[in-house]
Amino acid sequence: MGKPNRRVLPTIIGVSVLTTLAANVAVLVAHDDGPKSAQAGEKRARYVAASGSTDLSPTAVAPQGKRLSPHVLVAAPSALPADFVRKVRGAKGVQGVEVVDAVQGMVAGKRVGLMGVNPSTFRNYTPKPTAKSDALWRNVASGDVAISFTMGSDGGVKLGSQVPVGGKQHQSQLRVGAYATMGVSDVDAVISHTTAQALGMPTGNAMLISVPKSEPKAFIKKLRKVLPKQAKAVAVNPEIDFPKAGNVPASNGQVMTAGQVQTVIKAAYTRLGWPYVWGGESEAEGGYDCSGLMQYAFAKAGIRLPRVAADQARAGWVIPYGKAEPGDMLIWANDPTAPGYISHIALYLGKGKMLAAPRTGTVVQVQNVYTRNMRGAVRVSPKMAAKVAGAISG
């Protein structure tokens, strides 16, 4: 299925990027979300657990080590040169480097960001709930695929099921061994390096870099001077700016006009009744997911939004829900495997109502607003939205 304006190679995994990498795959793409109902609550934590045990010995995967936050992603069509990797490892401010295999592949019939990793070391670069699960990483080491929480819970891909994984033409059946978000927004599926090689993925063509004391943008600027040909670098999951109350412009072209607000709302209403389709963003896919719905509606008002909820949350100023107005986007962090990660978004209609695409098995609908895990409302700025979307699409 076509995914216009997904993410371009530089942002590949973290903030965007889409490029052709190998025969049947292209470097990472982003996906989406849509919460379950608020009452899913405490039960969600269990999804971090793997779906079953393996025959691997307890020592097959190293225990969790010191956790590192990935700040920069570098990706290329083929293996990153060893001397380049060494230079980055030794660069000032670099606390850690994790080399991985990365492509945009097919998992359970969806085009997603797919990574081949060393379970023993890569786990240290993931969110705490994901990193600490020994069973999860042992399952990945044994040949399972771990998929993001949203792809599983909202996309309807069942834990323990057998799903096709690979390129467009050649795929193998793998078991879904766990629901676990990896904390890199373009990545919805992870397999072991061994499994990746069996599927024909490029080897060592990407790496995550932890630079906790450096500004990612400044580090990337320096890094670009030594990047291998065709390689790109992007920040991983830029943080959302939460301005102080009263700092949101009221007009002067900074926010939507009344006419644009009405156009967005009317456009969203035309999608009522369409099925929730994880990764869907047009009629061509037969439905919409939550951020695909937002992208569709705002485009009708001439506003270009990035593709996924985590990026759409940066398309304006985040304000308290109590100050929300019709036309704002509401955002939630519903993913227990990646605390704080924005995983769902909806359009605020006013008077406690919102228009949303919830999850697989539902349709685009008007709902009562719920505040569990809500992180606020986004007052969309056409200029900010275009800037974010432009950076992501390259």
From TrEMBL:
This is NlpC/P60 family protein. Residues 258-387 form the NlpC/P60 domain. Residues 1-22 form the signal peptide. The keyword Protein biosynthesis does not apply. It comes from Actinomadura darangshiensis. GO terms for biological process: proteolysis. SUPFAM superfamilies: Cysteine proteinases. It comes from the Bacteria. The lineage of its organism: Bacteria, Bacillati, Actinomycetota, Actinomycetes, Streptosporangiales. Belongs to the peptidase C40 family. Keywords: Hydrolase, Protease, Signal, Thiol protease. GO terms for molecular function: cysteine-type peptidase activity. Pfam families: NLPC_P60.
